[in-house]
Sequence to fold (356 residues):
Amino acid sequence: MVFSFLFLGAHTASAHVAYVVPASSLANKGGIDFAFFFSPLQNINYYVIVLCTFLMIVAIYYLGHHIPLLIKEFAHIKRRLINYGPLVPWILRLGLGILFIGAAFHHVFISPIMSDIGNLAPYELVIGFSLLVGFLITPSILAIIGFYLVALFHDGYILGNLEVLGSAIALFLLADGRPGFDDIAGAPTLIRAKFAKYVPLVLRITLGSAFIFLAFYEKIFNPHYFTSVVENYHLTSVIPVSAAMWTFSVGMIELLVGLFILFGFKTRITSVVAFFVVTTTFFFFKEDIYSHVSIFAVLSVLFITGGGKYSIDEHIEHSLLPKPTTQVRRKIASTTSKSSTKKVVKKTTARKTKTQ
Fold:
């Protein structure tokens, strides 16, 4: 149980450090300190904790794939999720719409880590409500992409919110305004639906990269940033390990979650775990909910779609499909050949009839 709490507790602290710690507290704590970050590896007790946590996860994974009842239930859930596909555009619109409305009311630019630049809050408000009601969706999406690029130019820390850009691009590719005013009014859209199959790929790349960026930037390369969170919220009293162990655990777990999502490995279960983790941060750190709504939306969509194109999940699924035996392949080839021969005979007979 102790190891389970360590795993979940490490996730609970995984968030944008700047969301929960004042910038003034981080001013003098930046900088690489690999000696501090990797110091838990010098403690044999922490080795045991990491090993037991790993074995626990492997055991859960094994049981989930070998208990018939669970296998049947997972297959049922997967079949049901196919019917949720039409909800994907609406989920992404809700996520971005609420995010931009919240940012406007809090006078920040896209994310709490950036103050409003150029008094753009009114425009954020318009964009947010436009997405919620489904009015001028495409122009709103293009405005979000432009806003994000401007924010990125001002502060690279916004890479931790890369899922915002991914959501906007995914919505553009889906080109689906249902439900919304544009669809009711019959507003024309550019033909982009054929690219919808790449939506999970776009979301995986952006959200996975965001998690990986935060793991490196806030934990691995600037470990004392996260130490501030540990100290301010007395996390060592929640789970009695050192601040260095907290930082190392959260950094490694956040990195693994990012990699799993990026490469589409066990995408659905990873999305569920990440969704639960992000939810717990609101209760523990008392964060503003709007700042994570876009993450909720992307995780929900990935739970529906799975890894999609160019994912490890897709590769595994295809490799597990039963392949036809040599005898079956010969039968198929023979049937195809006979069918082709019959078509040729019919065409030849038809031509002779016409000639006569």
Remarks:
- The two ends are 88 Å apart (CA to CA).
- Confidence is low (pLDDT under 50) at residues 1-15.
- The CA atoms of residues 227 and 243 lie 6 Å apart.
- The longest helix spans residues 326-355.
